[in-house]
Amino acid sequence: CLATLIIMLVGDTYTLINYVSFINYLCYGVTIIGLIVLRWKKPKIFRPIKVNLLIPITYLAFWAFLLIFSLYSEPVVCGVGLIIILTGVPVFFLGVYWRNKPKCVNRLIESMTCWGQKLCFVVYPQGGVAGEE
């Protein structure tokens, strides 16, 4: 969010859309790669929808072509998109990977999560239940 706010202050909306679209396409491809890996490593788990592997492999071929073409034609936009993705690495290490955090850090993370949930109306606060009213 901080990187997006800085870009919005410095650049224009179309630049931000270009950065985010590169990030989206990169995430779509990584998701499809994950689907193929799970089909190969864990073939017996339940899947409500199962498609022929030719479809995701074909998608990945086109995805790789578009990604390589994007990197070639607009390396600065792709580089900034990758930097935006990498800004999440410290957040991951502080919030998820670091297991034995001090209680003050846990309280700060919980309060920021609750504040973000209330701000965006995405999840009921932890103290309440949806059907209580």
What does this structure look like?
- This protein is mainly alpha-helical.
- It has helices at residues 2-10, 13-41, 54-73, 75-86, 88-97, 103-120.
- 74% of the residues lie in helices and 0% in strands.
- The longest helix has 29 residues, at 13-41.
- The two termini are 33 Å apart.
Main attributes of the structure:
6 helices; 133 residues; extended; mainly alpha
Rg over C-alpha atoms, rounded to the nearest angstrom: 20 Å
For the termini, the CA-CA separation is 33 Å
Q: The biggest beta sheet, please? A: none
Runs in which pLDDT lies below 50 for 5 or more consecutive residues are none
Multimerization status: single chain
Structurally, the number of domains stands at 1
Précis, in short:
By secondary structure, this protein is mainly alpha-helical.
Chain-wise SSE layout:
Blueprint: H1 2-10, H2 13-41, H3 54-73, H4 75-86, H5 88-97, H6 103-120
Helix pairs in contact: 2-3, 2-4, 3-4
